[in-house]
Amino acid sequence: xxxxxxxxxxxxxxxxxxxxxxxxxxxxxxxxxxxxxxxxxxxxxxxxxxxxxxxxxxxxxxxxxxxxxxxxxxxxxxxxxxxxxxxxxxxxxxxxxxxxxxxxxxxxxxxxxxxxxxxxxxxxxxxxxxxxxxxxxxxxxxxxxxxxxxxxxxxxxxxxxxxxxxxxxxxxxxxxxxxxxxxxxxxxxxxxxxxxxxxxxxxxxxxxxxxxxxxxxxxxxxxxxxxxxxxxxxxxxxxxxxxxxxxxxxxxxxxxxxxxxxxxxxxxxxxxxxxxxxxxxxxxxxxxxxxxxxxxxxxxxxxxxxxxxxxxxxxxxxxxxxxxxxxxxxxxxxxxxxxxxxxxxxxxxxxxxxxxxxxxxxxxxxxxxxxxxxxxxxxxxxxxxxxxxxxxxxxxxxxxxxx
Amino acid sequence: xxxxxxxxxxxxxxxxxxxxxxxxxxxxxxxxxxxxxxxxxxxxxxxxxxxxxxxxxxxxxxxxxxxxxxxxxxxxxxxxxxxxxxxxxxxxxxxxxxxxxxxxxxxxxxxxxxxxxxxxxxxxxxxxxxxxxxxxxxxxxxxxxxxxxxxxxxxxxxxxxxxxxxxxxxxxxxxxxxxxxxxxxxxxxxxxxxxxxxxxxxxxxxxxxxxxxxxxxxxxxxxxxxxxxxxxxxxxxxxxxxxxxxxxxxxxxxxxxxxxxxxxxxxxxxxxxxxxxxxxxxxxxxxxxxxxxxxxxxxxxxxxxxxxxxxxxxxxxxxxxxxxxxxxxxxx
Lengths: 403, 332
Description:
The complex is a heterodimer of chains A (about 400) and B (about 325).
Chain A (H helix, E strand, L loop, with lengths): L1 H7 L5 H4 L25 H7 L3 H11 L1 H18 L1 H4 L20 E4 L2 E15 L4 E13 L1 E11 L3 E9 L18 H37 L1 H15 L3 H11 L6 H31 L3 H8 L4 H38 L10 H5 L5 H6 L7 H22 L4
Antiparallel strand pairs in A: 1-2, 2-3, 4-5
Helix pairs in contact in A: 4-15, 5-7, 5-15, 7-8, 7-10, 7-12, 8-10, 9-10, 10-12, 11-12, 12-15
Chain B lengths: L1 H27 L5 H11 L6 H10 L6 H13 L5 E2 L4 E2 H36 L4 H15 L2 H16 L18 H38 L2 H8 L4 H7 L1 H5 L1 H5 L1 H18 L5 H10 L3 H29 L1 H9 L2
Antiparallel strand pairs in B: 1-2
């Protein structure tokens, strides 16, 4: 009975009671005794346990597939705004007076059922005298093959380097309005690409401002506590109890009409940043209040470090990742704020071209009904805002890798 | 509870004063005033302004007095229900905004109601059916709703309504009721039109609310007492409504504070797009022409609405949740 149990051996406990038939030879291991044998890790484990926080964050972030995709999309967008002049088929202000309110031209890849060089169909134009509107009909007999990496409208890259190379240009004497044209016959696609330069940077500059304000004010409130904290808290509540948009509108109305476009641009970003800092300040304050009780902070105080050094050197780095995540989440509201202000005519004005400025052309219901392609700047706005939201979500999840 | 109430009201007063100061400063920041803009405009058209009347008005409204005195006049007037004089419309502000304020209030209130009614079932559903196909779908829609700015949404809706139904969906009532006294017909017409702005303005808030309710409810559903109750054989629906849901409901009330400013902001732009007879377009006009009493009193009214909304939500929360009540008194 015992023997059976011993040899089949599923029950570990049975072994202690079993009496072996022959005595087991005495066994001594010659290897040196290692008391940490159990604690030792395989290289893979070691890599995991010893990974720096930033690496852990990256691993964590990588798991959020949508956030990674959003991040890549945003990187592409931001690289794109470096090369607007090259990417846009036309210049920002090149007018085509023969093609006012021309509808989008579709790209064709097949001609008579055979694969062909991508081309668009040229327009037949006539004026509809009963409706008093321009009618453009694409003519299949007028294929206009698209040229790539070609000479087109000349530009100066960032106002410095002169050039004329474009990613895609229309055929000689032809047109290439992939997203239609506006009331002055300007190509919408080119304008959207140029508009990205303003719309995408407004958020970043605004966030930089609100980031600085938030860290400064929140840091002071959280570190000193007491009366300072109470006062700042009330101030934040006052700012937050304003409906943002009306306040933005009121502030934007202050900007003098005589300002140059670049000044208006900075004015608007400062206005956007001046109101959004409250959330960041709150986050900083909350974190500081709990962190300043930690031992390492007390140690720094005892060693005679000044408040600025304690906040900047010891406290801030420990929740910087959180701050970056929440800053990412405030970018979209700034982009939307700029869009809304410009749409209402209080923000940026032509000749600056942002997505909001482009959209302000589509305010009118008749425009929307007759020339719906003027609403297309909506799409990049929504894409950018969605991407920033997902990216911020992913960053926030990744910000605390030890949880 | 009474102590908490008193304390809360006392906090409200300095907040409102601070807000009124900020608004007054903002309104007075642009160089010149309504009259200088007005005279310049008339002169550019080669006309002459009635300088005597303007001088009288400037005198009457203390434009030549020091700023702090102007501020005092304005706030004391506000306390008496006198919102000042709109130079743009040549009428007292109260008369100009009267109907519009009611409509603004109506739209905001309905929007918040809409947010609750929609967010509640969807939030509960997607929390109890976590990671199901419909949960993913609702989450995606929620993100889309969160990301689409309301005025763009309004624009798209205007376009779609035109393409699909061939109608214009602007306005808040049938044109024949404009400038008519309130009647049943007018009220019905308003209710027939109000749902479009309500959906447009409410989408973002609803999406945010759904996400928060879902997260809160998911947290609660994993707790031990839910397991215990389930083990004891409580029917799932009764269990859900009796315990976790009640705890997850706090954001519904506390969110009014963050919801109200959003609703009001959204309403401003959306009402410009949809040409609603609410305060939005008027505020825009007033800001453009430096009609300071009109703009200032509007902003003040909106901020007041928000502060009172936050106050009410705080009180409701304290009544519902003893932890807040006791914490507030213990913290003193």
